[in-house]
Each structure stands twice: as structure tokens, then as C-alpha cells.
């Protein structure tokens, strides 16, 4: 099979690897679509994503969907079933403290598709075939294509952030950063009943995508527009420390700021004074628990996030796809790889 494999910074290859075979409790998935994420770009550009450093070649990709192509012993799943995949697999039998019981995204050791966090690394799904534990499959409802299904994982990230915010229905929401996750936050907040969603970004093309996903108002920071004042519920999706001062100041006194964008794992300058004087509740949001199930259900109920998709490339052109996704001037939203033939 073919796979998109990163061997080091700037070194992406389309390698031919042995076809995998499912073992007990496992399923073989013929992959059809994969979405490029910021962590994929980080491994390709820098050989690391956060504190996870590439030590040997890694198949990229954790936003994937395809169809069941075979099953191992003890699995009763229909061949041909369209599925997406929960990319997280807990390691060991660690029991979480009662205060965070059930929040499996906070387990200290998790194998995640396309991640170098553990050794050996965990290959992702940017390949023609991938063996998956049966429990990681999420069947796609009728009417939801595998192309749409590849967006379930990042939509789950957004839905988890919305859950972290508490009650959203009827409220005004500000999203700072209109990258793919920021745009999906728009869709998730509107789906959860937010009355008004305001989105801010430096790029007009990103704001246009946010509009198509339901944003009521946009703030073009690149043209000198200012963030609004006193918004009760704010999502910070840019991950830029330099943006924090303005975002905190835009948050209403006593309001809530949900940090979704990944902040650097090293010292960075940020203006944080308003966190104290405005008594803001600043909440982190990391990946998701099982909101991918909620995301699949929402897609089945008609939530349309396809306007996020701006570019598609065949697997053989994965290097070009990564370059487009990394280029803020390309106008890209979510860039998809066609990993195999999409069957209907």
C-alpha cells in the first residue's frame, strides 16, 4: 500500500508499505479521505509537534474516513460499512482521579493516530489501508459521505470546546482565529444554539469561510478592525500568545475564555493583566473525549461543514497538499487528501 510518511523536517515521502492484516478485535479500513491538521504540518516542517519529537519515520494523519475492508477474529462488522475513526487509544489501565473521571483525553499516556508522542510512534491514517481496533470505529449515518466523515474528528475538537464552555444556547460568542478549528467552532456553537457568533481573523479568506459556516459578524483584524467589547463567552482558536491581551480584554467581566488554540510549550510574551482584574474564567480545551460520536450524529442530522473544504489532492500529491495547507496566502481552509476511491 501507499502511505504519506514523514522522515524528518521537510522530508515527506510516498512510501510503499506492506498491506496490514487485522488481528483479533481489529478491523481493516480502506481509507478514502484524510484531512490535514496543524500537527501534520508541524511534523513535516519541524520534525516535531509540541513536545513530541520525530525519532523515526511516521505515517501522518488522524482526520480520516473510509470503509471496512476486512475484519479480524471476534469482530462482527459489515464489510463495506462507511466509517470514521476515533484516533485515540489509551495505553495501560490508568485510573483517573475522581475529579476527572471519564475524561479520557486527560490520560497521561494515549496513542493517537499520526503522533510521535510515544515510542514507537503511532502511525496515522494517510495510507490506503489501516488496521484499527473495532472500538475506535464510528459508523457514518446514511447520507454522510466519507468525505464529510473526514471532518468528524476536527468537528469533535470544536464540540468538546463548546462543551467546556458550559451553556451556549442563546448567548453571544466570539471566536478569535478563523482557521479550520475556529471555523468549526462557529458551526458547533451555532449547532448548540448560540444566538450570535462573531469571528475575528487577519485573513479575509478565512473570514469568508467562517461566514459560510454560520458566523453572524466578522472582524477583519488585518484591516484595522477592533475586537468587540464585553463578550460573555470567547473561544481563542489562534494559539498566538500575542493575541491573548486583546482577547482577554474583549472578554466581559466575569466572562469565560476557552483556550482551544495550542499555545507554545516554551516561554512567550503575552499580556494577561485582564485575566485578574476582569475575573475571567480561562478554561483549557484539549482534543475530545467521545464528542466524535456527537459530531457524526450532528453530520447525520444535517450539520453541513463542507464549506470548510477548499482543496483536495490525491495521495501522490501529499507534499503539495501540505504546502498549500501551510500557506496562509493560499486561501485554504481544510485541505483533504484522497486516499482511495470513494464508493457510494
TrEMBL record:
Pfam families: ADH_N, ADH_zinc_N. One of its GO terms (molecular function) is oxidoreductase activity. InterPro entries: ADH-like_C, ADH-like_N, ADH_Zn_CS, GroES-like_sf, NAD(P)-bd_dom_sf. Residues 180-297 form the Alcohol dehydrogenase-like C-terminal domain. Keywords: Metal-binding, Oxidoreductase, Zinc. Its cofactor is Zn(2+). Residues 23-142 form the Alcohol dehydrogenase-like N-terminal domain. Belongs to the zinc-containing alcohol dehydrogenase family. This is L-idonate 5-dehydrogenase. It comes from Amycolatopsis albispora.
Amino acid at each position: 500500500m501507499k502511505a504519506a510518511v514523514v522522515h524528518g523536517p521537510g522530508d515527506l515521502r510516498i512510501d510503499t508499505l506492506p498491506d496490514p492484516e487485522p488481528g483479533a478485535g481489529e478491523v481493516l479500513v480502506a481509507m478514502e479521505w484524510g484531512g490535514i491538521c496543524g500537527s501534520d504540518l508541524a511534523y513535516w516542517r519541524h520534525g516535531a509537534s509540541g513536545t513530541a519529537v520525530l525519532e523515526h519515520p511516521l505515517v501522518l494523519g488522524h482526520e480520516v474516513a473510509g470503509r471496512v475492508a476486512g475484519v479480524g477474529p471476534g469482530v462482527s462488522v459489515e464489510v463495506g460499512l462507511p466509517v470514521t475513526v476515533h484516533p485515540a487509544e489509551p495505553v495501560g489501565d490508568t485510573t483517573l482521579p475522581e475529579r476527572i473521571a471519564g475524561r479520557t483525553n486527560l490520560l497521561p499516556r494515549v496513542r493517537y493516530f499520526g503522533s510521535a508522542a510515544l515510542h514507537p510512534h503511532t502511525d496515522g491514517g494517510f495510507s490506503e489501508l489501516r488496521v484499527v481496533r473495532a472500538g475506535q470505529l464510528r459508523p457514518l449515518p446514511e447520507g454522510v459521505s466519507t468525505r464529510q466523515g473526514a471532518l468528524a474528528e476536527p468537528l469533535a475538537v470544536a464540540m468538546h470546546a463548546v462543551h467546556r464552555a458550559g451553556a451556549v444556547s442563546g448567548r453571544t460568542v466570539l471566536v478569535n482565529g478563523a482557521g479550520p478549528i475556529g471555523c468549526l467552532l462557529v458551526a458547533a456553537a451555532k449547532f448548540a444554539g448560540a444566538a450570535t457568533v462573531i469571528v475575528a481573523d487577519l485573513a479575509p479568506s478565512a473570514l469568508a469561510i467562517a461566514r459560510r459556516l454560520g458566523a453572524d459578524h466578522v472582524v477583519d483584524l488585518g484591516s484595522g478592525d477592533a475586537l468587540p467589547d464585553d463578550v460573555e463567552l470567547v473561544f481563542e482558536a489562534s494559539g498566538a500568545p500575542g493575541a491573548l491581551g486583546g482577547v482577554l480584554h474583549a472578554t466581559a467581566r466575569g466572562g469565560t475564555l476557552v483556550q482551544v488554540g495550542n499555545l507554545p510549550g516554551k516561554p512567550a510574551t503575552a499580556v494577561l493583566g485582564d485575566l485578574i482584574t476582569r475575573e475571567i474564567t480561562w478554561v483549557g480545551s484539549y482534543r475530545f473525549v467521545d464528542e466524535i460520536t456527537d459530531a457524526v450524529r450532528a453530520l447525520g442530522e444535517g450539520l453541513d461543514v463542507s464549506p470548510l473544504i477548499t482543496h483536495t489532492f490525491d495521495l501522490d500529491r501529499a507534499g503539495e497538499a501540505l504546502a498549500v495547507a501551510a500557506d496562509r496566502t493560499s486561501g485554504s481552509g481544510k485541505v483533504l487528501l484522497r486516499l482511495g476511491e470513494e464508493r457510494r
